[in-house]
Amino acid sequence: MNNQNLRIKISLYINYFVFAILLNSVGIVIQKALNNYGVTEIQASILEAFKDLPIAIVSFLLASFLPRIGYKKAMLAALAIVFLGCISMYFGNTFNATKILFLTVGVSFALIKLSVYSIIGLVTNGKEEHASMMSSIEGFFMFGIASAYFIFPAFYSETNPDAWLNVYPFLAVLVGLSFLFLLFSKIEMEETTAGDSLGDDLVETLKLLAKPLVIVFVFSAFFFVMIEQGMMTWLPRFNEKIFSFSEVLSVQMASILAISMGLGRFLAGWLAKKLDWTIIVAACLLISASILFIVLPKLVVDGERLIQISNFADIPFLGFVLPMIGLFIAPIYPLLNSTVLSALPTNLHAPMSGLIIIFSALGGTLGSRIVGWLFGTVGGTDAFYFLLIPMAILLVIVFILKKMTQKTV
Asked: Which of 53, 258, 302, 353 could join 117 via S-S bond, C-beta 3.0 to 4.6 A?
């Protein structure tokens, strides 16, 4: 690896880590909105849309044009926008302020993710290296999410319900440091485009949607993120209401999901060099479904008898088992993404990344809204049964993708 590629990769990891904290704090903020702003589960679930829909819209508008802007400039703009979002949340302290916050996070993350996914194809060689880096950077992202489950509770106070807002000046400082690191990083590389002009770029993007492989793949991204966000966004609330954990403990225990997902993605990066991706993804889906089948029926009975739990020593065994599902759902997304991206020429990676992000965002929004609606109507335990449906659909799609990727795109 040359020094230039090393600097680029370090910059990608740092930016992805910072946005992991902000992007996936939505579950924590939903819990705070329910407790502090007096909204319902159904109302609070709209925050996922304020995060994901801007991701989809910005990705659609800028995916092809981004190489012409420059990946470094796009990432710097993203960091500047989300810095302002953190400051506005600190001074706003209303449910509407949370909407503005996640609007800025969504817009910014679209620019970051488009840049990261496109650059990976330029600094790696071969499908195995691409899959390995994709898995490792997504794994690092999950550890960023895990850190959020400890950073936010560190600012909680039993006497001051607004004390948690102090996390946002802290996050603004992290964003500022990330901005400075990127600003002074020398990133010089050939940023390939889909066509010879912006019009050609848009045409090439639309042509991608005519490819059967791409159509099937974007549905796989849609259903996976439906599973991931449905679980991740609502796990803090699930812990609080079903396991009767205290507010702080429910957030901290949700970190196990993120940590296990991080480990799962790093493990996938290693396994991808030794096993066929289809075997890994199919096994992960079957094990994940089995965990839900084993854990959820027991919670229907046990959840009624639990008193509030505030200490790790008092946590029941199932409280640790459920979030460990992250170890098995984690490898799915990066392996699917890498499989399709590495099957396309690098000049199509930016528009393809845009399609990935668009359908991932739509899947995340719909998954969170459905689980939130079910949470408010039938209860948290039954709400999580819904996740078995996209798991079954995704299992079928995996084998369809396998056949398609063996052919010329």
From this structure: 353
Rounded distance between C-alpha atoms, residue 395 and residue 387, angstroms: 13
CA angle in degrees (0–180, nearest 5) for 303-304-305:
95
* Residue 300 in this model has a pLDDT that exceeds 60: no
The domain in which residue 322 lies consists of 3-405
Query: Which pTM value belongs to this model?
Result: 0.71
Whole-angstrom Cα distance, residue 151 to residue 309?
A: 20
CA-based radius of gyration for the chain: 20
Distances (CA, A) of 56 to 181, 256, 393: 27, 28, 22
Burial class (CB in 10 A: 0-12, 13-18, 19+), 409: middle
* φ/ψ (deg, to 5) at 300: -60, -35
The total domain count for the chain is 1
Kindly state the average pLDDT of the residues 383-406: 87
| Spatial contact of 227 and 365, defined as CB atoms under 8 Å apart | no
Shortest CA distance to 51 belongs to which of 304, 303, 365?
Answer: 365
Q: What angle do CA 385, 142, 264 make, to 5 degrees?
A: 70
Per-residue pLDDT tens over the stretch 176-203: 988 888 888 776 555 555 455 556 666 7
Q: Which amino acid is at 392?
A: A
Angle at 68 between CA 64 and CA 70, to 5 degrees: 110
CA 353 from centroid of its chain's CA atoms: 14
> Under a CB-based contact definition with an 8 Å cutoff, are residues 8 and 189 in contact?
yes
Q: Which CATH number is 368's domain given?
A: 1.20.1250.20
Q: How many CB atoms lie within 10 A of CB 82?
A: 28
